[in-house]
Design brief:
about 850 residues, alpha+beta, about 20% helix, globular, binds alpha-L-arabinofuranose
């Protein structure tokens, strides 16, 4: 235990023991502050007169129901000790849903999974209270009309139907207590003093950890005032080398921040299918409709959206254009303009029909209206047909637009209007933007996870990412609302994801929903209580099995044939599949996860399933998720945590105590977050420092991916990200440099080492980190050192007989001011021998690559 915490605890226990009562009053309550989102609080008293709040507004339990912005509310919690020696808490969630929440706890500190229980009538569920009698719990609640009802249960899982009761039967067991923060309504309990002591310790502990985790470089001048250069000795133990995962460094791709359409997917026409709808943005943008990004220039041209004779039932809308005379144009403005490069060829394609022959000019025009490229297309026939033209750009322009100009009067319809550069990544048709894809490939990721994130499990059942909707001809793919508030064409679909993985030599790691939508869903029921109906689950399970056949099946199988038809007869060599994404671990989740997991395990034992353990490094979902993974022997689980640099500094040993024989970990989403959410040298160094611990535990942590990967400037919903971009530039961050250095300089064996630092203070010692790995394919040994201190570190490295092939080693150094956003690694060559000195600059990450002879 840390010294400061020890002193707090000792002082506390001395005071407490001096006059410790046997039992005290405990008051449980919530307040309406922060729209009722502050959770369950406690206060204690010896005499019911003087009350001591355990932390002001400190939450011992929070509601997990519904969306972050509007829900997650705990209204009128009611707490009681049950006949099963567990504390039971029920609470109202909002003013309208006919649902109450329940959670139980053995100690009021660790809480079991929450359930959200639907009741009738459909008139809200307010002020729920619990009554207990001989093994039976009755939950009594009010509804908006003023009537009262109850439901009964033995286990808080299955309930009797609601029964109306008289209003006088509603128990008035809650009391109002005057606290320092104001009057609060809640329940009084008589509990052992030791129970309250534990609550106080839990609060103090959390407070202490929060203070430590909040440390960042802005306080370094004060924190390290007077600190002189530190010295360190590092002894390597190559003879104790142990294997680590050869898949450790990968990428997490999610269609967030316009990462797909308008981003990695090279399509240049926005809303090419006229399928943008108000629903994409939940009605929040009146202009976001089927003609978004399209406009008309000139007179005597009517442009309207039709749906009478669609190109495909999945692509319902199309545009019909009528002109009485030539001269006007229909324009697509692209995604904030279209970036065109001189001398490059662009494929224009569209589906069109026209009863009479119609001639069109297709143009790319620059920001000043000048023509950059042009071509001609003639449409004839009233059936939908695909037309194409190739245009070569005469000039660069990052704000071009696509213009379609009828040369003759008449009427025609068009859909799937597309413009692709011929130079896509690896020149694939329907391919990826070459510069962005190359920037990802440069990180040498061993795997690519897709399509998310929250996008994988979706906002409500109807929004779950269904892989079958994203394959085949573009017109048959099903576009949908992207839960990050825009439109998803599915042009970048499962085939393209698999192809990209193959192109960059990374293992594909698709993540499918575990039969439940995002825990923060606000559509179609809140939270994950809206799991896929159990009677539809067989079909859903089959869909997951079909995905494996699509990826790996013989070209003669039903799904393997579709892959072959798309141009890839050979299997994609799928080995991993993620089921679920940081889901709430509820009964609804568990039932569905187990169904999918068991079916995949039975039918495809060759596939490694990756389960999920919630969105944090602790708490109910983490505990329940791990317990479930252990029960089911899930081979790998996906952990997520976005944390402060301070958390990374003080938790480098996070995986040291993990079970070496249990499920492996995929650290699927992580990043260091500072206030204001920059991606700067400080966050990058914190990640580099934490990754030394991940490498050390590379026998348990088999995969890791920073999140999110991509973000388009001006369209970013989440910061920080690894690679920012606009239409013509790619802007990798400092964090990217760290990921790339780890990707390129990864190893397959870990060399334990002993580090001695001249300063023993925790805040100094923990800001220095080291790891050593050996890459079996090159035979090179790679040392990584991080110094997050404002002073340099003089290091003596003892390689202890490592057979050196060369007296020179490659040194790569990333250093600067913590706030730097443009620090870049610098390479040099250094002299090394069995024992050598290395100066590690303040705020720096150093990689030394050594050639060895065995
Ligand atoms: O990475 C951004 C989001 O963070 C992911 O979609 C989600 O899984 C997590 O909450």
């Amino acid at each position: 235990m840390n010294k400061a915490l020890l002193i707090v605890c000792l002082a506390f226990s001395l005071i407490a023991r001096a006059a410790a009562p046997d039992s005290v009053y405990l008051f449980s309550y919530s307040t309406s502050k922060n729209n009722n989102k502050n959770g369950l609080h406690f206060a204690w008293s010896r005499d019911r007169e003087t009350w001591h709040e355990i932390g002001s507004e400190f939450a011992f339990l929070r509601s997990d129901y519904g969306r972050w912005d509007t829900e997650k509310r705990m209204i009128d919690p009611y707490l009681m000790m049950g006949g099963d020696n567990l504390w039971h808490c029920v609470w109202a969630l909002n003013e309208h849903d006919p649902v109450f929440a329940h959670a139980s706890s053995p100690d009021l500190i660790n809480w079991n999974r929450q359930t959200y229980n639907y009741v009738s009538p459909l008139d809200g569920c307010l002020k729920p209270v619990i009554d207990y009698y001989q093994g039976n719990y009755t939950v009594i609640y009010a509804v908006n009309s003023g009537k009262y009802y109850n439901v009964s249960t033995h286990d808080f899982k299955s309930y009797t139907p609601s029964t109306q009761i008289a209003s006088y039967a509603y128990p008035s067991t809650s009391v109002i207590i005057h606290l320092a923060g104001g009057n609060a309504k809640g329940q009084l309990h008589r509990v052992a003093w030791s129970d309250v002591e534990k609550l106080i310790k839990a609060f103090e502990n959390k407070k202490y950890r929060n203070t430590r985790n909040a440390e960042n470089s802005s306080g370094d001048a004060q924190r390290f005032a007077g600190l002189k250069e530190v010295t360190a000795t590092i002894d390597l133990y190559p003879e104790r080398a142990r294997p680590i995962s050869d898949l450790l460094m990968g990428v997490f791709f999610e269609d967030i921040n316009y990462a797909a359409d308008g981003g990695l997917y090279a399509e240049l026409v926005q809303n090419r299918d006229f399928e943008y709808t108000q629903q994409d943005k939940l009605g929040r943008d009146a202009n976001w409709n089927a003609s978004y990004a399209w406009k008309v220039k000139g007179d005597d041209l009517e442009f309207k959206i039709d749906s009478a004779k669609p190109l495909h039932q999945n692509n319902f809308h199309y545009a019909t254009v009528s002109t009485t005379k030539a001269g006007a144009k229909i324009i697509n403005t692209g995604f904030d303009g279209i970036s065109i490069k001189r001398g490059e060829k662009y494929d224009f394609t569209f589906f069109a029909n026209s009863a009479a022959k119609t001639s069109l000019r297709v143009l790319l025009t620059g920001r000043n209206g000048q023509t950059l490229a042009s071509s001609a297309v003639t449409i004839s026939g009233s059936a939908w047909k695909k037309y194409s033209a190739v245009m070569t750009a005469g000039m660069d322009d990052d704000s071009a637009q696509l213009e379609i100009e009828p040369v003759t009067a008449g009427v025609f319809s068009m859909d799937l209007v597309s413009l692709f550069p011929q130079k896509t990544f690896r020149n694939r048709k329907n391919g990826l933007r070459a510069d962005l894809a190359q920037t990802i490939a440069d990180m040498r990721p061993r795997f690519v996870r897709f399509p998310g994130g929250c996008v994988a499990h979706g906002d409500g059942l109807g929004n779950i990412y269904r892989w079958k909707n994203t394959i085949g001809a573009l017109q048959q793919r099903v576009p949908q609302r992207n839960l990050w508030g825009y439109h998803q064409t599915a042009g970048l679909g499962y085939f393209e994801y698999f192809q990209f993985c193959e192109d960059i030599g990374a293992a594909p790691v698709p993540v499918v929903a575990a039969g439940v939508p995002c825990q923060n869903s606000g559509v179609g029921g809140a939270g994950q209580q809206g799991g896929i109906p159990i009677w539809e689950m067989d079909e859903y399970v089959q869909e997951v099995l079909d995905l494996i056949e699509y990826a790996n099946g013989d070209a003669k199988t039903k799904w393997g044939k579709l892959r072959a038809d798309a141009g890839h007869p050979k299997p994609f060599n799928l080995k991993y599949i993620g089921i679920g994404n940081e889901d709430l671990i509820t009964d609804v989740f568990e039932e569905r996860f187990a169904m999918i997991y068991k079916a995949v395990k039975e039918k495809h034992p060759e596939i490694t399933v990756i389960g999920t353990v919630g969105p944090f490094y602790e708490g109910t979902d983490y505990n329940e998720g791990w317990a479930l993974a252990n029960r089911l022997n899930v081979p790998v689980v996906d952990e997520h945590y976005y944390v402060s640099p301070g958390w990374m500094i003080y938790n480098q040993d996070f995986y040291d105590g993990y079970n070496r024989n249990g499920s492996k970990v995929y650290l699927g989403e992580y990043a260091a977050h500072l206030p204001g959410r920059p991606n700067n040298l400080e966050t990058a160094l914190a990640e580099a420092l934490y990754l030394t611990g991940v490498e050390r535990n590379g026998d348990v942590v088999s995969m890791a991916s920073y999140a999110p990967l991509l973000a388009k400037e001006k369209h970013t919903q989440w910061n920080p990200d690894l690679i920012y971009f606009n239409n013509s530039q790619v802007k990798p961050t400092v964090g990217y440099q760290v990921q790339k250095l780890y990707g390129i300089h990864s190893g397959t064996k870990y060399f334990p080492s002993l580090i001695n630092v001249s300063e023993h203070k925790e805040e100094v010692r923990n800001r220095l980190a080291f790891s050593a790995v050996r890459d079996s394919s090159s035979g090179d040994v790679i040392l990584k050192m991080v110094n997050l201190l404002p002073v340099g570190t003089k290091t003596k490295i003892n390689l202890r007989g490592l057979p050196l092939k060369d007296s020179k080693a490659l040194k790569i150094e990333l250093t600067g001011n913590p706030q730097d956003k443009d620090a870049r690694p610098k390479e040099s060559s250094i002299e090394i021998k069995d024992q050598f000195d290395l100066e590690i600059l303040p705020y720096s990450f150093v990689v030394i690559r050594i050639k060895t002879s065995s």
